[in-house]
Amino acid sequence: MRDNTAKPSTFDVYEQELEWVPVSELYGFGNAVSASIGNLGKYLGRPGDDRGPWFYLIKHPPHTLVPRHAHSSAVCHLLLEGSWLVGEDEPRLCLPGFFHFEDAGAYWGPMRSGSEGSRFIAVYSGRPDFIVAEGSEAAEPYSGRE
């Protein structure tokens, strides 16, 4: 049943007005991302509001390694700057303009940013809840265009 008491609203923010903070401290991640990874981000949503939106601008320092992981909600990434090497045995090189989508619970990675680092937009359908893989969880079955 729809809540008729909630009125539609808008939300605006200039990302330049927000400070870069460790992803581990960003609203929605619940300290699930180790600060030692080195990721920094900006939350582009309503602070403290579980309705979202769940938009983030993230940057990785050079050679940042993000372990294979999943999220409790669907996510898409758009790589704006830098590069990523994704996968273990034969890593795939991803360059600016690379778009990636994961269903909730799909494991992806590991991912390492290139020598220039990277900057990207991440949009989640709900709370991000970073879930590190513990063993041989199935990877995302679709690996992109061949």
Structure write-up:
- The protein is mainly β and 146 residues long.
- The chain has a domain at 37-127: Jelly Rolls (Sandwich), CATH 2.60.120.10.
- The chain contains no helices and 10 strands.
- The chain is globular and about 50 Å long.
- The termini are far apart.
Q: Report the portion of residues in β strands.
A: 35-45%
Work out the number of β strands. 10
Shape: globular
- CATH hierarchy class name of the domain at 37-127: Mainly Beta
Q: What is the mean pLDDT? A: 84
Output the radius of gyration. Answer: 16 Å
Organism: Mycobacterium deserti
InterPro entries: RmlC-like_jellyroll, RmlC_Cupin_sf
Protein name: Cupin
Secondary structure blueprint with pairings:
Layout: E1 21-22, E2 40-43, E3 54-60, E4 65-66, E5 69-71, E6 75-86, E7 92-94, E8 99-102, E9 111-124, E10 130-132
Annotation keywords:
single chain, 146 residues, mainly beta, Jelly Rolls, eight-stranded antiparallel beta sheet, two-stranded antiparallel sheet, globular, disordered C terminus, RmlC_Cupin_sf, Cupin, RmlC-like_jellyroll
Q: Summarize this, please?
A:
The chain is 0% helix and 37% strand.
